[in-house]
Amino acid sequence: MAATEVARQSTDSARNLSLSGHVGFDSMPDQLVNKSVCQGFCFNILCVGETGLGKSTLMDTLFNIKLESDPVAHNQPGVHIKSSSYELQESNVRLKLSIVNSVGFGDQINKDESYKSIVEFIDAQFEAYLQEELKIKRTLHNYHDSRIHVCLYFIAPTGHSLKSLDLVTMKKLDSKVNIIPIIAKADSVSKNELQKFKIKIMSELVSNGVQIYQFPTDDETVAEINGIMNAHLPFAVVGSTEEIKIGNKMMKARQYPWGTVQVENENHCDFVKLREMLIRVNMEDLREQTHARHYELYRRCKLEEMGFKDTDPDNKPFSLQETYEAKRNEFLGELQKKEEEMRQMFVTRVKEKESELKEAEKELHDKFDRLKKLHQDEKKKLEDKKKSLDDEINAFKQRKSAAELLHSQAQQSGSQQTLKREKERKNNPWLCTE
Ligand code: GTP
Ligand code: MG
Fold first, then answer.
1. Distance (Å, whole) CA 209 – CA 202
2. What residue spans of 70-218 are helical by DSSP H?
3. 52 CA → ligand 2 middle, Å
4. What's the burial of 432, exposed, middle or buried (CB within 10 Å: 0-12/13-18/19+)?
5. How many angstroms separate the alpha carbon of residue 184 from the centre of ligand 1?
6. CB of 239 shorter than 6 A to ligand 1
7. Is the peptide bond before 234 cis (omega within 30 degrees of 0)?
8. Residue of 53, 65, 108, 187 to test ligand 1 pocket, by largest number of atoms within 8 Å of CB
9. 209 dihedral zone (left: phi>0; alpha: psi -120 to 50; beta)
10. Rounded to an integer, what distance in angstroms lies between the CA atom of residue 148 and that of residue 128?
11. Rounded to two decimals, what is the model's pTM?
């Protein structure tokens, strides 16, 4: 066989062989089931709906147990999320069930932001899973998956239409979670009204582009039942944990003065349809859709936001390593640019400071020169003054010494004349004195 032919066979298709005896790999599905049963399952339900619509009662009715649902204050300024987890077991299958409640939903006067904390909670669970996935040491096999698998949206049984709060909230949630809309307390709406109400709700959802969860019809074992059930949406449900003896059977029901509503009677409400669809038929699909559709969308947007992409601008595959390298280079380039900018800024600042200092120095020099000149002028003036004073002193001294000389000469001649007169008087006593 030519080398090219061998290569083509190994890459194109695997050959079909029929075994001559039993090998045992037909037990793969059983192995898978055993492993899954061993690990247990988890299922997280988010209940969104206005206060007192019967959310807790419905959960209790669904799981046939009194779940912890302490009354919570509904006078809070905003909506907050309350999550409770339970370990349930049916036959040998363990289920870790989380019920997440939107406390205070619809209680505020301004309901513009009511959806926010719900969306944030859903995103936070996706983020936690993504962070676990991105870890070097991952423990996804025993990771407590808190991602919301289904959102039961409780619609008030008004018989009219959806409230804008319902439409806005469902629109915000539909790309993040599988929404199953249900009409709560359906026993308060008459049969005819209920039918019209259902049609009205569905048409409003369609006209507002709200995507609700569709029970899958691609698996032929459940395609028929799911197809039928899709047409019954939204389910009109009644919840009750009260058991009443009907015939010789204990039944969950709500008793009224005019009659009894049997929760599990399909002529009375869609509770059984909801339970079948949610738990018995589509629980795994809901989990799968959460991972494959909603989480995948979150992951993609998040990684794209972080700059990761699968292809380069030429549409060629771009590996994580290459993205990392490209990002690193981009980062280094930016760092260098920033460094250069800072260096330039530093040089400019230094130059500015230098010229400022030079200016100041020049001003100082000028000032010094001016002061020096002033000082010299002053000094010269003083010296001139000193000189003229010295001259005056000298002249004075000269005059003084001349005066003294004259004085002494005068004294001398005076005393000689006196002596002469004395002498003359002595010689001539008749000479009178002056
Ligand atoms: P919060 O958690 O406080 O928002 O209330 P909730 O939505 O959990 O409602 P909850 O289950 O506490 O029920 C509120 C009231 O409605 C209780 O008195 C229930 O008995 C009653 N209720 C619950 N389900 C139904 C129902 O299907 N029909 C009628 N008529 N009443 C119901
Ligand atoms: Mg409650």
1. 11
2. 116-134, 164-173, 191-207
3. 7
4. exposed
5. 9
6. yes
7. yes
8. 53
9. left
10. 12
11. 0.75
Rounded distance from Cα 68 to ligand 2 centre (Å): 9
Q: Using CA positions, which residue lies closest to atom 10 of ligand 1? A: 54
Give me ligand 2 centre to Cα 53, in Å: 8
CA 270 to chain centre: 41
* The two three-digit tokens of residue 144, written as one number: 């407590």
Give the three-state DSSP class for 240: coil
Q: Name the CA dihedral angle for 104, 105, 106, 111, rounded to a multiple of 10 degrees.
A: 100
Nearest CA to ligand 1 atom 5: 52
Specify the 3-state DSSP secondary structure of 48.
strand
Q: Write the Ramachandran bin of 56: left for phi over 0, alpha for psi from -120 to 50, otherwise beta.
A: alpha
Query: Tens place of pLDDT for every residue, the chain, 434 residues?
Result: 444 454 555 556 788 888 888 888 888 999 988 888 888 899 999 999 998 898 999 999 998 887 766 777 777 788 889 888 888 888 888 999 999 999 888 887 777 788 999 999 999 999 999 999 888 888 888 888 999 999 999 999 988 888 889 999 999 999 999 999 999 999 998 888 999 999 999 999 999 999 999 999 988 888 888 999 898 889 999 999 888 888 888 888 998 888 888 988 888 899 999 999 999 899 999 999 999 999 999 999 998 888 777 777 777 777 777 777 888 888 899 999 999 999 999 999 999 999 999 999 999 999 999 999 999 999 999 999 999 999 999 999 999 999 999 999 988 888 888 888 888 888 876 655 44
Pairing label, strands 150-155, 41-48: parallel
Q: How far is the CA of 34 from the centre of ligand 2 (A)?
A: 36
Assess whether the C-beta atom of 84 lies below 6 angstroms from ligand 1: no
- Euclidean distance between CA atoms 42 and 125, whole angstroms: 14
The verdict on the CB of residue 52 being under 6 Å from ligand 1 is yes
135-144: long-range contacts at Cβ-Cβ below 8 A with a sequence spacing of 24 or more?
141/39, 142/39, 144/42, 144/96
Which atom from ligand 1 is nearest to the alpha carbon of 47? 7
Q: Nearest CA to 214 among 167, 179, 163? A: 179
Q: Is the CB of 217 under 6 A from ligand 1?
A: no
- Cβ of 290 closer than 6 Å to ligand 1, yes or no, is no
| Closest C-alpha to 127, from 306, 307, 309, 325 | 306
